[in-house]
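ingest -> fold -> write
write: protein_1
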Amino acid sequence: MKITESTVSADPIVVIMGPTASGKSALALELARKRGGEIVSVDSMQLYRGLEIGTAQPTAEEQMEIPHHLVGCFDFHERIDVFMFQRLADAAIAEIRRRGRLPVLAGGTGLYLRALLYGLDDLPADPGLRQELDAAYDSEAGETALKRRMAELDPAGLARWENCRRRLIRALEVRLLTGKSILELQKNPFDRLRYPVRAWRLDPEPEVLRERIARRARRMLETGWIEEAERAIASGLLETPTAHQALGYRLIAEHLAGRFGFEELHARISTATWQLARRQRTWFRHQHPEAEPLRSGASVPETA
């Protein structure tokens, strides 16, 4: 992947990355308090209003204490892509710097973070083809048909993005346009950082992370997530592209329809979240060599 822009600024920023439930938000808050920082969320789902509990957005109290950016900015009927996110995040970082404060990036959406730090790829794009594939995905048996096509054309891409609609469609688009796998075309993503950074990657032991995920899922379900999901579903969430990415809401819809009880709901959400976390751990280990690993309970060094 070629970098599309030169380095944006010589002033460093701090990045806290890692899988869901690894403690990124707490560590970012700790660092922002110590260093006079403001937090920029790098989470594709925290952008949306009305999904505060299910996407683990910072509380109102936390946002009053430390300014947060790119949290609850959009209605979930709006589609925000990586290109728009990059523009919004660049603007937020510039605004924070103008106030003489430290930008602290925290999040687990790997594609968004890579686009912000390294730039967007210059691979060919065909919006018409992408729209056609998107519509095909929504048709009856369309998801199965597209995945079967990917299995024939780009099995490695399917293995990587089988559970991510947006990335799967983009990979198929690139394969159809170039005749090559997007993975092959992105073999050298680390040409140059757009920002000088100090980056840390939270990497809890798997058993610790799995326990955290289960504990957090239960707490969220017991403190309003089901009611939040019910309101969002009544407002049309399940008919939006956001629903495909917002983990847990479709499962809650099935629970509300009486298909399974609370304990089964908790187990299914915990399992789905663990699967996401495993993919995120792999992504961050391979896609962000600039990040220093931190284990559970660690703090960012004072020299950050």
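write: protein_2
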Amino acid sequence: MTTHYKKSRILGLAFLIQFVTSFSAGVFILPKATGVKAFGAALEIGQIMANVAKNVAFARLNIFIELITAAGVIFLGAMLYSAVRKQHRGLALTAFGLYVMEGVLIAVTKLALYALMVLSQEYVAAGNPVSMEAMAGLAYKLMEFLPKINSVLYCIGGTIFYALLFKTRTVARPLSLWGLLSFQGVFAAGILSLFGAKAPVFLYVPYIPFELFIAIWILVKGINKEIEDK
């Protein structure tokens, strides 16, 4: 098995792991824990606390899977850096640094979920005292806000990486262009969210299947060996 073959498969697996863990944790597991559906209506903090107290197993599972996501983001950034660093080392290193920052923030966000989980259990055990809702509300606000920062960091880093992938033809150019353009919708959504506006769902739609598609593409087709060797 050649080094190029191994590198292609590892990069494809990095994309696949990132897609599976982030999608399952955010779309399925966290809503099970909090009762707040993705793109759904907001709930009062007391109701969220009651839901979390009833679904501690889902909260713990979300923390575990998101820690895998955090490591996966950093690993994906390292693999993308390895793929494009010969084209522009400075830009590639900047993008990798942004991916590292995102991975760290994902882990920090899970500390907020853990705090909410503990507070929720105590809240229910104490008979739902209103005095505990303020602290839990702060933890939940952090859970909502930090992913918005993550989104902006990830999109800036991704834009750099996919611009370099497009330029080098490391993967098929239409695929790099899809990633480059779809990141801009997520970036716009992240900026809107940071300023308190509700981002429309259509901004996310082009990107949702992208990581799965590029993972399968790289696993099947590999990356361009001729460009990589330059």
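write: annotation protein_2
The radius of gyration is 19 Å.
The CA atoms of residues 168 and 227 lie 7 Å apart.
pipeline exit 0
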